[in-house]
Design brief:
The complex is a heterotrimer of chains A (301), B (300) and C (320). By secondary structure, chain A is α/β, with parallel strands linked by helices. Chain A has helices at 23-27, 60-67, 90-99, 117-129, 136-149, 166-179, 196-213, 224-230, 248-251, 258-266, 285-292, and strands at 8-18, 33-44, 49-54, 75-80, 83-84, 100-103, 184-188, 216-221, 233-238, 241-246. Chain A has a domain at 8-112 and 184-266: P-loop containing nucleotide triphosphate hydrolases (Rossmann fold, 3-Layer(aba) Sandwich). In chain A, the strands form two sheets. Chain A has a six-stranded mixed sheet, with helices on both faces. Chain A has a four-stranded antiparallel sheet with strand order 2-1-4-5, covered by helices on one side. In chain A, β4 (75-80) and β5 form a beta hairpin. The longest helix of chain B has 37 residues, at 197-233. In chain B, β1 and β2 (150-152) form a beta hairpin. In chain B, α3 (72-107) packs antiparallel against α4, α6 packs antiparallel against α8 (197-233) and α8 (197-233) packs antiparallel against α10 (262-289). Chain C is of the alpha/beta class. Chain C contains eleven helices and twelve strands. Chain C has an eight-stranded mixed sheet with strand order 6-7-8-3-9-10-12-11, sandwiched between helices. A four-stranded antiparallel sheet of chain C has the order 2-1-4-5, covered by helices on one side. The chains are: A alpha/beta (301), B mainly alpha (300), C alpha/beta (320). Chains in contact: A-B, A-C, B-C. Chains A and C meet through α7, α8, α10 and α11 of A and α7, α8, α9, α10 and α11 of C.
């Protein structure tokens, strides 16, 4: 079997943040840097659903943002379809924007509260078309198509985001991303903020999109069960580094890295988990320190 | 009939309740007074009449006359123009300057530009507006200035000054909202669509920053009325004989204790009622614009 | 038959002005015995958090407990004057929340907060109180308790904050601890540690726990009995083993099916179609009927009866 070239390749990506120190400390010249992403190399195969698993502070969200170029890495290179993303011409950069899109975790902030859904989608379509203007009726047909694709009634087009449920908002987020006709969709914790009874709707939608459109999906999640179900390959992240990669059937059944083992052991097991051993109370100062840096590692720098 | 009632209810609700609605009514009244002064005023506000001096409110002069025989009612009506013009145009200048500055500082944050803008604004707002106003008027002078074909009246100087002084407050308010809205995911989504920063700033971020700004603008309208009155009261604002509520109060100073109550009560009441009206509307709008999202979310 | 520690009887909580009320908790009955761990399960909009807040008399503005009784140790909390409630709160009933940052004062070191709490309710003297603070921190599993008493809330990780909040809650020896989604905001590894901690303090202090969560697996791990809520009312309750092995209410059954598991299943993930009803817009008959896979004509027309067996109840036509 000939291995196809990966759609998106990351080589030794690092992203550092400089801790902002107080006035006095500035003079002592000790600049503390924290690496949110600390040397990650990854190859995302075309047409598959790839899972990125980790807890908060692992750097998975930062990595997702680097992939879609919301953030620039401090060092390392990204190759999309074999081309170095940093060396693209302006036209190619615009095309890149169309190819790689993102779906966000927080459905409340992912849609502009003042815009009706119709406008959200029409703006996305117009951004895709840029110079070529579509007729209003062609636009309407496309929007109806997008709504249908994500399983929503077109009547919701006239609503505001706060009139929709979390699951519906998430679907709109997916529709908006699809409006750009992307090749790769980065889904950053797409179901974490949803009720369990609704999570399946989004997960199934993503799986269908992958099957029917051949859409490559990078699923970032902390939920091992979901990732195991739909991903063909997964990577486990801890402290900015990838500790293990492979198909879920191997990584989750027979993990080689102790952290993966810990993650698996921590999943609540319901009735079977009723007798628990004493925990390791290892919360050290270092971990506390990393927690105060979390706000600086969030989206948008 | 029921349609009218429900329309009325909607109107009251849009102002944030009955209090806000009364505020809006007061302002509507003010607008009618200011715009309709030429038609509504029974007498010429500048016409002196030695015969009618210091007449008590009654027939012919519903609010009485002042020491030169001018009709108080007409002067109040015409004086509303000065108050409204200064206060409204000052707010317009403040918005036109403050909102873009705050927006840019909040959206393109990070770096020296943001710091420079915000620190300058903070320095300016460290001094109360009234002190600034008096100081600047002292510098700029009270006389009318000729700039080619344009005459810059004292009123104009006052409102420009006031507008500039409003800029820090409005900029800071916009900045705070812009800062948090710029980090929202919907902004990131627009960036991913390849839309330019300026476009996102105006079309996505700005509308979400306006609620607190609108509320503050209403309150600044109230402040503007007071400042115009205060400045005119000390003689640095609208110059007599042009009527202004402030300078009407000033000329009533000598008559406070001698029984000609109508000279000070009516202009004072006009100022108070207008300011209360703006404040009520501002409060009502604040309630209406902010928890609206929260209220509709409570249903989910 | 001894009296339960907590007996919520016919509780109704509504929002909004009179005449425009929406009921968000509808006729809820709950019982917690001394030393028991009871789970309260539900998704968003089920009213579980509001029920807990009603018990603590901490309902947000605009919400009112309009009916029913909340009997704690025989005393109706809804009828008590404010001072009496303040005494009971913290001393007899305590609560920990999803976000510890809300409960912890950011400007006071955590040791001091616990110290103040103990001093408010008991007069132990300065040194004994300090020692108690350290004991409590050790009890909730914080290593090096003496050094940690000087820490501020924002210096601690999420898991540690949760432990501190728990220490604060149990400081005065309450009989009932209400834990409202205590691990939802935490990573799964930290969540496991917190669950063990809760189990341990329950064993050592013998207190009763009302554990509120949307995560059925967590509830199954720690609870003896569980109440399942949907659209503001309890749809099923019973011992945890029975509920998991043989649920009687379709909502419980369908919900259990939706939980993602590492079971190497393929094919689409099960979901419950549709959306929960909005407050004030309840369908006739059973509130769950529109989404239920076992519903028939009767379910959409008439309110279902309460089916009972000793210790197990479900509100469904199909339960029998």
């Amino acid at each position: 079997m000939i291995a196809a070239a990966p759609l998106y390749e990351l080589r030794d990506i690092r992203k550092e943040y400089v801790l902002r120190r107080g006035l006095l400390e500035r003079f002592t010249r000790s600049e503390r840097r924290i690496a949110a992403v600390d040397g990650v190399s990854l190859a995302i195969p075309r047409g598959e659903i790839f899972g990125l698993v980790g807890e908060s502070g692992s750097g998975k969200s930062t990595l997702g943002q680097i992939l879609v170029r919301l953030i620039e890495p401090s060092s390392g290179r990204l190759f999309y379809r074999g081309a170095d993303v940093a060396a693209l011409s302006a036209a190619e950069r615009r095309e890149f924007r169309h190819c790689v899109q993102m779906v966000f975790q927080d459905t409340n902030s992912s849609l502009n509260p003042r815009k009706r859904i119709r406008r959200v989608l029409s703006e996305a379509l117009r951004a895709r078309d840029a110079d070529k203007r579509q007729t209003a009726s062609a636009m309407r047909v496309e929007m109806a198509g997008l709504m249908h694709q994500v399983g929503l009634d077109a009547v919701l087009l006239d609503r505001f985001p706060h009139e929709l449920s979390g699951g519906q908002r998430q679907r709109i987020g997916i529709a908006r991303a699809l409006a750009m006709a992307p090749e790769l969709l980065v889904a950053d914790e797409p179901v974490s903020s949803l009720d369990v009874s609704m999570q399946g709707q989004i997960v199934n939608l993503l799986q269908n999109l992958n099957r029917e459109l051949g859409l490559t999906i990078l699923l970032i999640s902390h939920d091992l069960a979901i990732v195991a179900r739909i991903c063909v390959q997964i990577a486990v992240m801890k402290n900015g580094q990838i500790v293990e990669t492979g198909p879920p059937s191997r990584v989750l059944a027979a993990p080689s890295h102790p952290y993966t083992r810990t993650l698996l052991d921590s999943i609540p097991r319901g009735l079977h988990g009723r007798l628990r051993e004493q925990p390791r109370d290892e919360e050290t100062w270092d971990q506390s320190a990393s927690r105060t840096l979390e706000p600086e590692l969030k989206a948008g720098e | 009939m029921t349609r009218l009632v429900s329309r009325f209810r909607w109107l009251v609700a849009s102002c944030g309740g009955p209090a806000g609605f009364s505020g809006a009514c007061v302002i509507a009244l003010l607008l009618v007074m200011a715009l309709g002064a030429p038609l509504l005023a029974p007498h010429d506000p500048l016409q002196v009449s030695i015969v009618d001096q210091l007449e008590e409110p009654g027939e012919g002069h519903w609010l009485g006359t002042d020491q030169t025989g001018r009709d108080v009612l007409s002067r109040i009506l015409w004086g509303s123009r000065a108050s409204l013009t200064v206060s409204a145009l000052a707010v317009v200048i403040g918005l036109a300057g403050g909102v873009p500055i705050g927006l840019i500082a909040g959206f393109f944050r990070g770096g020296w530009l943001e710091q420079a803008i915000m620190r300058t604004l903070e320095a300016i707002s460290a001094i109360p507006i009234l002190i600034w106003a008096i100081a600047l008027v002292g510098i700029v002078g009270v006389k009318d200035v000729q700039l080619g074909p344009l005459t810059i009246t004292n009123e104009t100087k006052l409102l420009v000054m006031l507008g500039l002084l409003y800029i820090p407050t409005l900029a800071r308010l916009t900045y705070t909202s812009a800062l948090s809205e710029s980090q929202a995911n919907y902004v990131a989504a627009r960036r991913l669509q390849g839309v330019s920063g300026m476009r996102i700033m105006f079309s996505d971020v700005l509308p979400n920053c306006l609620s607190p700004v609108i509320v503050q603008a209403t309150l600044l309208l109230a402040i503007g009325i007071i400042i115009e009155a205060a400045i005119s009261f000390v003689g640095l604002g609208v110059q007599p004989p042009t009527p202004s509520w402030g300078n009407m109060l000033a000329s009533a100073r000598d008559y406070l204790l001698s029984g000609e109550w109508w000279l000070s009560v009516f202009p004072g009441a006009a100022i108070s009622i207008t300011v209360i009206g703006f404040n009520l509307l501002g409060d009502g709008l604040r309630d209406r614009l902010d928890p609206r999202h929260i209220a509709s979310e409570a249903g989910r | 038959m001894s009296e339960p520690l907590l007996h919520v009887d016919g509780l109704r909580v509504s929002f909004g002005a009179r005449g425009n009320e929406r009921e968000v908790v509808r006729n809820v009955d709950l019982r917690i015995e001394r030393g028991e761990v009871v789970g309260l399960v539900g998704e968003s909009g089920s009213g579980k958090s509001l029920t807990a807040l009603a018990i603590m008399q901490l309902l947000p503005t605009g919400a009112r407990a309009s009916h029913g009784r909340i009997l704690f140790d025989g005393v109706d909390l809804l009828r008590l004057p404010r001072r009496a409630i303040n005494e009971r709160r913290g001393r007899d009933i305590a609560m920990i929340f999803q976000d510890p940052l809300i409960a912890l004062n950011p400007t006071i070191p955590i040791g001091r907060q616990i110290y103040d709490c103990i001093r408010t309710h008991a007069d132990l003297g300065h040194r004994p109180t300090l020692m108690r603070v350290e004991e409590l921190l050790a009890l909730v599993g914080i290593a090096h308790p003496r050094e940690r008493t000087r820490a501020y809330a924002h210096e601690l990780s999420g898991g540690m904050r949760q432990r501190v909040m728990t220490a604060l809650a149990i400081a005065c020896g309450p009989k009932l601890l209400i834990a409202d989604e205590p691990t939802t905001a935490l990573d799964v590894t930290v969540q496991a540690q917190i669950m063990t901690m809760l189990d341990r303090i329950r064993n050592e202090l013998g207190l009763a726990v009302l554990f509120i969560s949307h995560n059925l697996d967590l509830v199954a791990e720690i609870c003896d009995r569980t109440f399942v809520m949907y659209a503001g009312s309890v749809v099923e309750s019973g011992p945890v083993e029975t509920l998991f092995a043989a649920p009687k209410h379709p909502y419980t059954r369908q919900l259990l099916r939706c939980i993602p598991r590492l079971d190497w299943a393929t094919g689409p993930m099960p979901t419950i179609p549709g959306l929960p009803p909005r407050f004030g817009e309840l369908p006739p008959g059973c509130a769950f009927a529109p989404r239920c896979d076992a519903a028939d004509a009767r379910c959409g027309a008439e309110t279902p009866p309460v089916w009972r067996e000793p210790g197990h109840m479900a509100v469904c036509w199909r339960a029998a």
